[in-house]
Specification:
It comes from Microbacterium testaceum. By secondary structure, this protein is an alpha+beta fold. It has two helices and three strands; from the N terminus they run βββαα. Strands 2-1-3 form a three-stranded antiparallel beta sheet. The mean pLDDT is 90.
Length: 67
């Protein structure tokens, strides 16, 4: 297993792929195993956000019928 300091990260501020801990954690998304995966991080984050929103819309925990 490769340690996180050797993996790839997507820098949310610059939009660049970095290897290792080049930037503060708050500015990084990852880790990713390859630079290509890190470069695709914005699309992946959008896809996951949409999936979570869809799941939340289907969730009826807060509705009165679920009680």
């Amino acid at each position: 297993m490769v340690s996180d300091d050797k993996k790839y990260w997507y820098n949310l501020e610059t939009g660049k792929v970095e290897q290792g801990f080049e930037s503060p954690a708050i500015d990084r998304a990852g880790p990713f195993d390859t630079a290509e995966e890190a470069a695709a991080a914005p699309e992946l984050m959008k896809k996951r956000a949409k999936q979570w929103a869809d799941e939340e819309a289907q969730d009826d925990w807060g509705s009165s019928s679920a009680r």
